[in-house]
Design brief:
The protein has 162 residues and is of the alpha+beta class. The chain has 5 helices and 8 strands. Strands 3-6-8-7 form a 4-stranded mixed β-sheet, sandwiched between helices.
Length: 162
């Protein structure tokens, strides 16, 4: 019952933060949440909104003060993907498909607790200066990427406050 309460707390907090950020919560998968920041809903700042929501999730779960109540890492990537209903008459699901979705998922899987990993494309689309950020090379099942590690709760050197 303690674990169920913990997960319910995570789901409730995550949903509130993401919906407030105009994201679509695509799904909860165990202890993970997948959210889409679609330009027609969030405007041209969709990448920035995704990064801000990732930071808000980490802060809300205690990563900014060093006392996390659930270990959480995040991955944010931007790109063109298929978003819609897939399946057949008897079984269908709303989802997003394509390399950008897979890259974001793999980034999230390689982010340590308290980390946000973003791609250069995301940093550029979010208007972030990222020269001072740590770079980490990650292999994402056929998509080698240099990920940028964003500090949570404090701006990187030369970066305006988020």
């Amino acid at each position: 019952s303690d674990f169920a309460r913990l997960m319910q707390r995570f789901y409730t907090r995550s949903r509130a933060i993401l919906v407030d950020g105009d994201a679509i919560v695509e799904k909860f998968i165990g202890d993970a949440v997948v959210a889409l920041f679609l330009p027609f809903m969030t405007g041209p700042e969709h990448a920035r909104r995704g990064v801000d929501a990732a930071e808000a999730l980490l802060l809300a779960t205690g990563h900014g003060d060093g006392e996390p109540w659930v270990p959480l890492g995040a991955g944010v990537h931007t790109g063109t993907a298929f978003v819609g209903i897939v399946g057949s008459k008897s079984s269908s699901d709303f989802t997003a498909l394509g390399d950008p979705v897979n890259i974001a998922a793999h980034l999230a899987s390689q982010a340590a607790a308290g980390e946000i990993l973003v791609t250069d494309a995301t940093a550029e689309a979010a208007g972030m200066t990222h020269d001072a950020l740590e770079r980490r090379h990650v292999s994402l099942k056929g998509h080698p990427v240099d990920a940028l590690v964003l500090p949570v709760g404090q701006p990187a050197e030369g970066e305006p406050a988020r």
